[in-house]
Specification:
Blueprint: E1 3-11, E2 17-22, E3 25-31, E4 40-43, E5 48-51, E6 53-58, H1 78-88, H2 97-109, E7 112-120, H3 128-139, E8 145-151, H4 162-171, E9 176-180, H5 189-203, E10 206-211, H6 215-231, E11 238-242, H7 251-264, E12 266-270, H8 281-287, E13 291-293, H9 310-320, H10 326-335, E14 359-362, H11 367-373, E15 377-382, E16 385-389, E17 392-393
Parallel strand pairs: 1-4, 1-5, 6-7, 7-8, 8-9, 9-10, 10-11, 11-12, 12-13
Antiparallel strand pairs: 1-2, 2-3, 5-14, 14-15, 15-16, 16-17
Helix pairs in contact: 2-3, 4-5, 5-6, 6-7, 9-10, 10-11
Length: 402
């Protein structure tokens, strides 16, 4: 039995406790100094404790992290970036297992212990990217729990054969299949959604669809998606990524849309990009629409930005939405941690008995202080194993290298 006791930590800034971990799970929590923990003992020195971060929207297969610097090129539109990536990725050896390991390592040292990653599936790369990410996750020794989305970045209907690839990916074990802008990428929303829902229902997988279109066009696609979800057996298994148009709607229209999304069981993920319209996040919270945060791509052919720090994404969400009060700042951190459990198929993801032992220690007075400063992660525990100390990975903790 692997056991570890971490003493004198403050979960969510509460009074100090000792946390006992056995076999990768939180086995016991009690007042500091009053728990007879077994195994190795570590003094948490009164640091703030949070659950591991959950990155609900990533693209780890695209990264060139750890490779020589790649200057940005291409046109600054969705179509332009897609075309640029397709033209240049082979030149840089993308997707690459070592770069994916490096990107996952950045997630881990910043405290992310679970992620949902979209992985490109298209006529050029086939299903190879999925194999690359699976191999990279295995080299991390299970420290980062990686959920896979087979993502048709280059379109679905406009590229005959992609639906077959998505069907194969679903048959071979991905948790979700993706889609992208049925109107402006494929110009055939009915055919794209028909194809995606048919595959998802056949194989029992979820759908996570990128919807970038704004305004009335974006809102119309949400309604199509709501109708399809209601008519299918996928309630609670459909997610919208980005969904910029939701922030464009008038307040009354947004509330009605949010209520319909909640009734259909559709969730939402955002990377909170600057200069986009804020989401009606309070209405979403009140209606019960799950909302997750993600990094999107980091250091890839779409953008040189990103460092894998989900706490900084939560900070960006807070700034975009004008959050100031402690309760709201704390909610932004919850979006990046315990309220994101469903995005990685966990019934619970928190510092509670029975949960997987994913925990992050930070030198912060309270949760709002941690959000606005995003201090170094002093300790990261993933699945009961210490994987990072003082902001650096502990390579000899079971993470393999080549």
């Amino acid at each position: 039995m692997d056991a570890l006791t971490i003493g004198r930590v403050r979960p969510w800034a509460a009074e100090p406790v000792d946390i006992v971990i056995r076999d990768g799970l939180i086995a016991e929590i009690g007042p500091a100094g009053e728990v007879a923990g077994d195994g190795d003992h570590l003094d948490g020195a009164g640091l703030l404790a949070l659950p591991g971060f959950v990155n609900a929207h990533a693209h780890v297969d695209k990264s060139w992290w750890g490779k020589p610097w790649v200057s940005y090129g291409g046109e600054p539109t969705t179509q332009g970036r897609i075309a640029h990536e397709r033209a240049e990725r082979d030149r840089y050896g993308i997707p690459d297992e070592d770069a994916t390991v490096a990107a996952l390592g950045e997630f881990l040292r910043h405290g992310t212990t679970a992620t949902r990653s979209h992985v490109d599936v298209d006529l050029g790369v086939g299903l190879r990217g999925l194999d690359v990410v699976r191999a990279a996750a295995a080299r991390m020794g299970g420290a980062v729990d990686v959920q896979l989305v087979a993502f048709p970045q280059d379109g679905v209907i406009r590229r005959p054969g992609v639906l077959d690839l998505l069907d194969r990916a679903a048959a071979e074990g991905v948790q979700l299949i993706g889609g992208i802008d049925p109107c402006t990428i494929d110009f055939d929303p009915v055919a794209q959604l028909d194809g995606l829902f048919r595959i998802a229902e056949r194989h029992g997988v979820g759908i996570d669809i990128h919807l970038h279109d704004g305004g009335a066009l974006g809102a119309w696609q949400y309604r199509l998606l709501i109708d399809r979800t209601r008519a299918s057996g996928l309630r609670g298994r459909v997610n919208v990524s980005h969904g910029f148009a939701l922030g464009d709607l008038e307040p009354d229209d947004a509330r009605r849309m949010v209520d319909e999304l909640a009734e259909a069981g559709i969730s939402w993920t955002t990377v909170a990009p600057p200069r986009t319209a804020p989401l009606p996040w309070r209405a979403m919270r009140n209606a019960g629409v799950p909302l997750g945060l993600g990094t999107d791509g980091i250091r890839d052919l779409w953008s040189p930005f990103g460092d894998g720090d989900l706490l900084r994404v939560a900070q960006g969400f807070a700034r975009l939405h004008g959050l100031r009060r402690d309760e709201d700042l704390g909610h932004a951190v919850e979006l990046a941690t315990r309220s994101a459990a469903g995005f990685v198929d966990r019934p619970v993801h928190d510092l509670v008995v029975g949960a997987r032992a994913d925990l992050v220690l930070l030198d912060a007075e309270n949760v709002p202080d941690a959000l606005v400063r995003a201090p170094r992660r002093e300790l990261v525990v993933a699945g009961g194993r210490i994987v990072a100390r003082h902001g650096a990975l502990v390579i000899d903790g079971g993470i393999s290298q080549r």
